[in-house]
Specification:
Length: about 350
């Protein structure tokens, strides 16, 4: 697992690679071009941490890319997508492309994961314009092109994606399968504030705005949370897990059983109204979490913090016969991190001695 980005108060010079089977770890140079992200202060020669970015794996899941985000301690929002160097595809070459607009607190999924036509779909988020916040309903698709027309070398390509139903930030997205994606919760810039809405999108046809359908709602509004698809270890049923964030019951974990629940309604896995985050996660709060499902989708591994504290711990949610448990592994990371990018990469892709 590569965690690209950093939590409150830390510089992001390295990415941390953690083995999900043994918890062994190593650090690798992040090698982001901070001048392109806007997170480099030339006067003081300081590279600020990039937070609120999104990322994915292009080119048969072998090429990590990080897009957007904002710089800690600055008001700069980035529109840059760039690959992480030291990959088996590019060596020390870093590719970049500019999105149509700066974005922070967007959400993303991979489309056609694991193929050479895989694209990173980046949705929503927010930007600043004329000293005011602008929430985004636009989306963008990022792809890797090995060779361009006229003999051009490898590069990143950006194109406009389908519009969202409404502008939203701090939401999350998950692939249910190759045909369906979910957009879950988020924050809207009006009196409605956070939302409990879940939208489904049909991935089978060329992207267009008509493929959104409203799905079952969360139990309560939630934003700045994380979500993932895992499988029940006994039944094999697909489970969408939602953890952390902000909202009336954000200290809880909720789930919908894709295969075992015809209504698709969400249910509580742990926590609820009146419970505190200490009851569930053992910490004061857990907002802006990041996470990734294990390769076999048996567990969801995540970390996080809040505006005052970030944690070095990782939490693991897994389920068996409908009963789910939460395991906390303390001090796994070198630095406390939240609002970061987590990617699942093959061990062969990094120079770590696990």
């Amino acid at each position: 697992m590569v965690i690209a980005g950093s939590g409150v108060g830390y510089l992001a010079e390295d990415a941390e690679v953690v083995s999900l089977t043994s918890s062994k770890k190593c650090n690798v140079p992040l090698n982001l071009d901070y001048a392109k992200t806007g997170c480099y202060d030339k006067e003081y020669d300081i590279e600020y941490s990039l937070e609120g970015a999104v990322g994915g794996l292009l080119n048969c899941s072998s090429l990590p890319v990080v897009c957007g985000g904002s710089c800690i301690n600055t008001e700069y929002f980035s529109s840059t997508c760039q690959t992480l160097s030291n990959s088996s595809i590019l060596g020390n070459l870093t590719l970049s492309v500019e999105m149509s607009t700066p974005r922070v607190d967007a959400a993303s999924i991979m489309i056609n994961t694991g193929s050479d036509t895989g694209r990173l779909w980046i949705t929503g988020g927010t930007m600043t314009k004329s000293n005011s916040w602008t929430y985004l309903a636009t989306t963008e698709l990022i792809s890797f092109v090995p060779f361009g027309p006229g003999g051009n070398g490898p590069h990143l390509h950006v194109e406009q994606g389908p519009e969202l139903v409404e502008a939203v930030k701090s939401h999350c997205m998950v692939n249910v399968d190759d045909q369906t994606a979910l957009l879950i919760g988020g924050h809207r810039f009006d009196d409605k504030d956070e939302t409990d809405q879940v939208w489904t999108f049909d991935l089978r046809s060329p992207p267009d705005d008509t493929k959104w359908q409203q799905g079952p709602s969360l139990l309560a509004p939630r934003f700045s949370h994380a979500c993932s698809l895992i499988k029940d270890k006994e039944t094999g049923n697909r489970l969408v897990i939602v953890v952390g964030g902000e909202g009336p019951i954000a200290q809880s974990v909720e789930m919908t059983n894709i295969d075992g629940n015809p209504t698709g309604n969400f249910t509580l896995v742990a926590g609820g109204v009146g419970d505190t985050t200490e009851n569930i996660f053992g910490v004061y709060r857990l907002t802006h979490p990041f996470g990734i499902a294990t390769e076999d989708r048996s567990s969801f591994v995540f970390g996080g913090g809040d505006d005052q504290m970030v944690y070095r711990d990782l939490w693991i949610v897994s389920c068996r016969n409908g009963d789910c448990s939460i395991e906390r592994r303390e001090n796994i990371l070198d630095f406390g991190r939240s609002d970061s990018v987590a990617l699942l990469i093959p061990q062969s892709s990094v120079a770590c001695d696990f």
